[in-house]
Specification:
The protein is built from 8 helices and 12 strands. With 225 residues, the protein is α/β, with parallel strands linked by helices. The strands form 3 sheets. It has a 5-stranded parallel sheet, with helices on both faces. It has a 4-stranded antiparallel sheet with strand order 6-7-8-9, with helices on one face. Strands 10-12-11 form a 3-stranded antiparallel sheet. The longest helix is centred in the middle third of the chain and has 17 residues.
Length: 225
């Protein structure tokens, strides 16, 4: 059976078109037409990935994204935002809230399917039993779980990948470009500002421990060695 994709889109015609194309590509699809329905479905049967429209009735896309990423059980689910908003500020906002990717409407179904497969492939390539330990911080990539002094931390996919990269080589400085290439892939359309936003979010979530995540002015970031 293929990966389960939850399509969250209030326009039935768009939802049907996405479902038809994803099903033909071998995915299993579930659908929701608003944010609250999507949240209930994700809790009842967590999908492998969520396609999320920005503009939804009631609980909008960003509101749903915020709730998903605040729940440790749902936070690891990658989310691709589908929206007509294409300004850099909107893209950064979506990534800041925890989206794994961002596809603007109108979009090519082939490109969308390629983005979905790339994100799912990144998760499958992670060794299931690998554990990264850095002082009181423990990261389990295969389970997308992070704990600090035994307490679980709700991280987005992007935040987890960035933290795992830095903790895997304490003291090593990574440029923003290297961070994007290592966590998203070469030529991925993410701005430097998006990386900076993830760093700010990680420091906030790590509390006092976040002081170990250092900025190397003019270069990039490192985890203190």
């Amino acid at each position: 059976m293929g990966n389960m994709i939850l399509i969250v889109e209030d326009e039935e015609a768009i939802r049907d078109l996405i479902r038809i194309n994803l099903t033909a590509a071998g995915f299993v699809c579930d659908e929701a037409e608003d944010g609250l329905q999507a949240l209930a479905k994700a809790k009842a049967s967590p999908p492998d990935l969520i396609l999320l429209d920005w503009m939804l009735p009631g609980l909008d896309g960003l509101g749903l994204l915020r709730r998903l990423k605040a729940d440790p059980a749902l936070a690891p689910i990658p989310v691709i935002m589908l929206t007509a908003k294409s300004e850099e500020g909107d893209i950064v906002l979506g990534l800041e809230m925890g989206a794994a990717d961002y596809v603007t409407k109108p979009f090519s179904n082939k490109v969308l399917i390629a983005r979905i497969r790339a994100i799912l492939r990144r998760g499958e390539e992670e060794p299931a039993e690998e554990t990264i330990r850095y002082l009181a911080l423990t990261l389990i990539p295969g389970q997308r779980r992070a704990t600090l002094a035994g307490q679980e931390i709700a991280l987005t996919c992007g935040e987890f990948d960035l933290l795992a990269l830095l903790c895997s080589r304490p003291g090593h400085v990574y440029t923003r470009g290297q961070i994007v290439a290592r966590t998203k892939g070469e030529d991925y359309p993410v701005t430097d500002r998006a990386v900076d936003v993830q760093i700010v979010n990680l420091r906030r979530k790590l509390g006092a421990f976040g002081e170990r995540l250092e900025t190397v002015r003019g270069v990039g970031y490192r985890m203190r060695g």
